[in-house]
């Protein structure tokens, strides 16, 4: 096999690995968003009076193990105004927001 073919294959392999890692990270973020929304629905946190404290809202520097996507997903959901933050740092779902788009994977989150 010539050097040119080897270089082209190596570049293609690198691109496939890069795109694959982005796809996996996006899939994990989407899954974390669904988990957070399900958690808030189960706790009936739909207004500031029923807002709840989420233990995964803060990241820990000393966490050992797999990467936790929930703090980043929570920040994205707050940024897109799907979840709101009460004055005391508790979280609740935005009233009247249609959440079916996220369940179908068309939330517009990156």
What are its keywords?
mainly alpha, 110 residues, two-stranded antiparallel ribbon, disordered C terminus, 3 helices, 49% helix
Write up this protein:
The protein is 49% helix and 5% strand. By secondary structure, the chain is mainly alpha-helical. The chain has one domain. The relative contact order is 0.17. The N and C termini lie far apart (40 Å). The longest helix has 40 residues.
Kindly name the structural category: mainly alpha
How large, in whole angstroms, is the Cα Rg? 19 Å
- Helix fraction? 40-55%
pLDDT under 50 segments (min length 5)? 103-110
Biggest sheet, strands in spatial order? 1-2
How many domains make up the coordinates? 1
Number of contiguous helices: 3
List the helices and strands and how they pair.
Elements: H1 3-42, H2 70-79, E1 83-85, E2 91-93, H3 100-103
Antiparallel strand pairs: 1-2
In summary, what is this structure?
By secondary structure, this protein is mostly helical.
């Amino acid at each position: 096999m010539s050097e040119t073919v080897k270089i082209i294959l190596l570049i293609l392999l690198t691109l496939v690995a890069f795109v694959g890692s982005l796809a996996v990270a996006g899939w994990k973020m989407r899954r974390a968003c669904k988990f957070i929304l399900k958690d808030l629905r189960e706790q009936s946190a739909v207004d500031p009076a029923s807002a709840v404290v989420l233990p995964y809202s803060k990241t820990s520097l000393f966490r050992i193990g797999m990467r936790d996507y929930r703090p980043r997903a929570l920040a994205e959901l707050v940024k897109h105004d799907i979840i709101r933050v009460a004055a005391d740092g508790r979280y609740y779902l935005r009233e009247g927001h249609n959440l079916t788009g996220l369940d179908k994977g068309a939330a517009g989150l990156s």
